[in-house]
From TrEMBL:
Protein name: TTI2 protein
Gene from which this protein is expressed: Tti2
Family: Belongs to the TTI2 family.
Highest taxon of source: Eukaryota
Source taxonomy: Eukaryota, Metazoa, Chordata, Craniata, Vertebrata
InterPro entries: Tti2
CC annotations in GO: cytosol; nucleus; TTT Hsp90 cochaperone complex
Length: 130
């Protein structure tokens, strides 16, 4: 957050780091994933003009994270799972605002075909955000 809009200078490398951390579970407390979601949220807030061109990659990674968190049957406590889902949902909402509602349009088909309640609830929150 100290860099502000200057983060765009490092966006390509930062995106690779963020995607890498989102893909891999780091144990029951998921400290790295929670921290990287906070980093992503801060990045979206500061570099919002550059987010539309990264929409496809970030949307795919966040949706995969939602599904992985829902479907993983590891030792991760429920409050940690809920925190991951909440932060990923917040990132999707921010991404939607940066992209003038394109996330909602892209998620419309996913929401209607998703049968998993927790994932569906996250997608509903994105759809209902203003």
């Amino acid at each position: 957050s100290r860099l502000g809009i200057l983060i765009v200078r490092h966006l390509k490398r930062l995106e690779r780091v963020i995607l890498g951390y989102l893909e891999v579970s780091d144990g029951p407390e998921e400290e790295a994933r929670l921290a990287i979601l906070e980093t992503l949220q801060c990045t979206i807030e500061h570099a919002w003009p550059r987010m539309p061109c990264r929409l496809a990659v970030l949307l795919k990674a966040l949706l995969r994270l939602l599904w992985d968190v829902h479907s993983e049957r590891g030792p991760t406590p429920e409050p940690v799972r809920a925190a991951l889902l909440h932060r990923a949902t917040q990132c999707l909402i921010l991404l939607d605002r940066c992209c003038q509602g394109r996330v909602k349009v892209l998620l419309a088909g996913v929401h209607s075909s998703c049968e998993e309640n927790r994932v569906r609830e996250c997608l509903r929150k994105v759809q209902e955000s203003t």
